[in-house]
Amino acid sequence: MTEIFDNIRKLYRFAHPCPELADYIEFFSESSAEETYQYAGDNRFIIKMFPSWTPTCYINLGQPYRLSVGATQYQIQPSTDVLILRNNIVERHNLPTDHIFTIKFFPGGLEAILGINQAQFSDQVVRLEAVLPASLINRVKQLADFSERVQLLQNFFLSQYKKKNTNAYYVDVVQKAIGIYGTGNLEFTSSQLANELSTTNKTIYRYFTRIIGTTPKQYFSTVRARTALSAYVTDKKQFSPYDHGYYDMSHFYKDVVQFTGKKLIESVR
User: What are the structural domains, with CATH classification, of the chain?
Assistant: First the structure.
């Protein structure tokens, strides 16, 4: 299965965070054994995910699986729980018996809640104990119900979020810039975003590299590619590259290759 081209979400149960955390956590999810069996039966399968710069935690409640992050492969054992930044193409090699609990943060979410800078995690698979207390992870694994796991983690994140975060201002500026870009302004340059936020291009650049771990240009190029490709897959006939800040279709096709590693004709079924 390939993200955007396939509905990979159908394999999971989802829960949205409470309002206090909604700006920083995109969702909690957990593998659905029933949905996975309907899709894969008893066969192994691969889920391919494209860059998003969204720190993602995988708590392993089941069998070993394999992660490919860029060109590097990692064997994840049943006792191993990890975090990845998703700044590169990621492939998860699954078994039908896999059971994985996921926490997906928005860019800057780790910093806002836990005071942990995500930029240090580029191109890595990090042991989750470096981010969350081992005792908390063990408690999550001992619970039998998805909703109980969500509540436990949410309570923990709320307790941490209420503590003073010295970098909250930087996170706020970055999130405002992302919000402006994402609401119909995909053609905006960093300078235009800086004007919207009454700051300078240099400041926006510094905040993005500090909080997210990449430049505004690279991050927004990823956002534009994801948004445009999703629109193209949803309705090819109504798709216009100009709506997404592209010069023409060839410009869009070139971006798809850079984003997915494949030509569009190879990816669309």
Answer: 8-161 (2.60.120.10), 168-267 (1.10.10.60)
